[in-house]
Amino acid sequence: MTRPTALVAAAARDDSPDFAALMAPFVPFETRPHLAVAVSGGGDSMALLLLAYDWAQARGGRVTALTVDHGLRSEAAAEAAQVGAWCRARGIDQVVLRCVGLAPRSGVQAAARAARYALLETWCREHLVLHLLLAHQREDQAETVAIRASRGSALDGLAGMAAVSERGDIRLLRPLLPVSRGQLRQVLIARGQDWIEDPSNRNPAFTRVRVRAELGRAAAGSAAAHLAPTAARLGRGRAEREAEDARRLARWTVFDSAGFAWLDPGAFAGPERLGMQALGALLATVAGADYLPRRERLARLYQELVEGLAPGRTLGGCLVLARRGRILICREPAAVAAPAVLVPGMETRWDGRFAVALDRTGPAGLWVAALGREAAAVARVASAAALARIPAAARLSLPALCDAKGVVAVAALGYFEQSREEAMMAACQMQFRPTRPLTGAGFTIV
């Protein structure tokens, strides 16, 4: 339902947070920035949309509101339409992204979140939008810290949600983490803007709702005021550690564009935290995963590697193998995603690792799949240089272009079906672009 702001507009005052100051930590931005804003229609995201719109307009830029319809509630389509009407009234572009076939039997919020981020990030990538803004605020951060504390998270987990997260070629920005829910509602009231109350935010079946209730209405403000600054301080420490980790990873790691990595055992000669972080980061990136493996499992593998007792292990969807004094980390063939059909003119992200784009004039009837048992046959006619570079264990999970007759091309191995090499090289582009980058990009936008 919407909040009747007209009833309280007379008492409104414009006490908007300094959004320029909130965006300052994320500079630089491109000239005339185009921001995408995830907008559900709730109070937090509507306030973010209005603040971001003003910020972008002042810089000659624009915003696009992205609304996801998960298809899980009958009211969702009408709510998305309502957001669209509010956007049109203010001259803001809106796009509705719809989930297809999302019907989890358990873990509803986690499944919806994963689907939502996939849709949002894909839209940004396809429209060359570098920055996706999310409306998490101070109380959200406090709830996240409380949930993680209850699960025994280490310091990095207690730092809460990061203000900026790099995901391949886009950045997720959370500028409202220092701002309270009350301040955001005041922004809306002052501007005469209604919002939608999602009933799932009161459903005690969800962990976050229960944690919110436990914090208590009376104590929520003080808890958020205490936990959010603590999370911010820990977050700054986490960022400093991540920068140092990135420098060490550059010394310890050799990454191949075919999607596997070599790790120098020197990574295990220093502090355990650094070695475990390096190992976990490599596993997540090679697997195309969102998160590092669970800490206890990662610790067991780390200890085995330190002691030299792990000639071959699997963790987090990866194979971990000792090879000639180094450690090979490659995708576990049994964990690879199902084949994905390629549509001419569209980009497909396969297995969380590879972006595959087929030109509009490209042939129909192609799909991308793991090379698998065809690896040996392809190796007999593949590029000698590629075979020398790519270990046999890593070849099984390489992306292969296939049609009804079999393997058409394996670009990483320099293999193309006879007479189709030139056409396939022109029609299809493939790039290792994992869900979770190994380190922050550290890029400058001009």
How many β strands by DSSP?
19
Major beta sheet, strand line-up:
3-2-1-4-6-5
* Sheet having the most strands: 6 strands, mixed
Q: Uncertain spans, ≥5 residues at pLDDT below 50?
A: 4-12, 442-446
Instruction: Determine the fraction of residues in helical runs and give it as a percent range.
Output: 25-40%
Name the beta content range. 15-25%
Structural class: alpha+beta
Global outline: globular
Distance between the termini: 42 Å
Number of helices: 15
- Supply Rg: 24 Å
Instruction: Indicate the mean pLDDT.
Output: 82
Describe this structure in words.
With 446 residues, the chain is α+β, with helices and mostly antiparallel strands. It contains 15 helices and 19 strands. The chain has helices spanning 19-23, 43-58, 76-89, 108-126, 138-150, 155-158, 181-190, 207-215, 217-252, 272-287, 295-306, 375-379, 384-389, 392-395, 421-427; strands at 34-38, 62-69, 93-98, 131-133, 164-167, 170-173, 253-255, 261-263, 312-315, 318-323, 326-331, 340-341, 347-350, 354-358, 367-370, 399-403, 406-410, 415-416, 428-432. The chain has a 6-stranded mixed beta sheet, with helices on both faces. A 5-stranded antiparallel beta sheet has the order 7-8-11-10-9. The chain has a 5-stranded antiparallel beta sheet with strand order 12-15-16-17-18, with no helix packed on it. Helix 5 (138-150) crosses helix 8 and helix 5 (138-150) packs across helix 9. The longest helix has 36 residues, at 217-252. Mean pLDDT is 82; it is low at 4-12 and 442-446.
